[in-house]
Amino acid sequence: MLRLDDEECYIDEPVRSSIKQTRSLGRKQSCVRWLPECSAGAGIVATGTWDEPSNCVQLWAVALQPEDVEMDDDAAAAASEAPAARLLATAHHAASVLGLTAASGGGVAPPVVCAAGSDGSLSCFSAALDAAAPPSDAAAGPALRLTPAWSDGGGGGGALLSVDASPDGLQLASCGEGGLLSLHDAEGGAMAAAIAHGGDVWCVAYAQLALGDLLSCSSDGTLVARAEEGTASQALLEQPIGCSIHRRMTGVVSPLHGGLAAASDAEVLTFIDLRAT
């Protein structure tokens, strides 16, 4: 039973979603992220691989059924038999991809796909239309190419574990085993700030909350919320969410209600209502 707008709504049957899965891709897949842009009839996802002799970042077109369009039996059967995804572009990545994000908007055009590497590098690739490619139908997705845009090369401080793009697409935040939370310009890669944590930083995420717009979870057992203004950073909350030090922790914030869910290898889940903090 669901309650919506103080009214009870009963659902007699469970909602069933269409599920498709690719065949074996021949590589271990570690990360996936939707690109903000979506061509007619196809969503675009970026993926990364790990623990392979040669790792890569790839773009895939995922066929999406148009909303409010009814299909006859033949069309529905054809749609069900179509491949789950079509490979659009591949770019070599020197190390395992442990984090992935896409930045678009503001001054970033075309969008960039940014990968956090196990060698400590942060690498960005431009996802641009391939003008030399023959035209393709809308459902197959656009002809794209991934071109290396910039890379910081890694500083020897351990693996980068997480990367996220600001809502306006102008800034990237990355973190990892070195205990640093780094802010970069998305377009050129220039570092805007480096913020020290008390332990390895497992996860970073932008969130549009009054409390702070940049959240990070650290192995010192804390969640830190920061307000970002240009290159200035002010910690507004340092909330214990772990059971002990040196625990791996990741967290995610709902864009709908501001609740945070954190998962830890201390075998607990933690939930924080950041609106009331």
Automatic annotation (TrEMBL):
GO cellular component: a single term: nuclear pore outer ring
Keyword tRNA processing (UniProt): no
Subcellular location: Nucleus
Assigned keywords, A-Z: Nucleus, Repeat, WD repeat
Signal peptide coordinates: none
Keyword Metal-binding attached: no
Top-level taxon: Eukaryota
Main location: nucleus
InterPro entries membership: Quinoprotein_ADH-like_sf, WD40/YVTN_repeat-like_dom_sf
PANTHER family on file: NUCLEOPORIN NUP43
Official protein name in the record: Anaphase-promoting complex subunit 4 WD40 domain-containing protein
Naturally occurring in which organism (per UniProt): Emiliania huxleyi (strain CCMP1516)
